[in-house]
Design goal:
8 strands, Cyclophilin, single chain, globular, disordered N terminus
Length: 167
């Protein structure tokens, strides 16, 4: 745990290591406790290490969390029920839970917003926000065309709760 991360916050801070440096994520259990617990559990297990940012759309978002790199995979844990809220909005730096057309299909995939997207408000579970290093997220390789699918994508180096990482 870093000196800047109080012990009380260690369970709600995630360190996302990219090839360009560290991104600090503050989880929001007040908005989506099931999603926060899933994300924290998978990060603690090393699930996200070396997983690709398989879908990245300029001016919209960067999506990761699929071990197959196709956008159709997830963890071995069961899917989560939606935790939509009107309390928070999709703005730059927001972490949202990716899902299929079924609102109760979120599993391990997530996305980080490059810009506000009011059309997502109340449609996807918000479970965190980038508090440091958004300029590093901005450097993630973009996909081509409207689908945003990335060939030779950037990858998560590692992602762990702050309580498991060094300064």
């Amino acid at each position: 745990m870093s000196e800047t991360t109080p012990a009380a916050d260690a369970d709600t801070i995630i360190h996302l290591e990219l090839k360009t440096g560290r991104v600090v994520i503050k989880l929001r259990p007040d908005l989506a406790p099931q999603h926060v617990e899933r994300f924290r559990t998978l990060a603690a297990e090393g699930f996200y290490d070396n997983i690709a940012f398989h879908r990245v759309i300029d001016g919209f978002m960067a999506q990761s969390g699929d071990p197959t790199g196709t956008g159709s995979g997830g963890s071995k844990l069961p899917d989560l029920k939606s935790e939509f809220t009107n309390k928070a909005k999709f703005v730059r730096g927001t972490l949202g839970a990716a899902r299929t057309g079924n609102p109760h299909s979120a599993n391990s995939q997530f996305f980080i917003m490059f810009a506000p997207a009011p059309s997502l408000d109340g449609q996807y579970s918000i479970f965190g926000e980038v508090t440091e290093g958004m300029e590093l997220v901005d450097q993630i390789k973009r996909g081509a065309g409207g689908s945003g699918v990335v060939s030779d994508p950037d990858r998560i180096v590692s992602m762990r709760p702050a309580s498991q990482t060094a300064t």
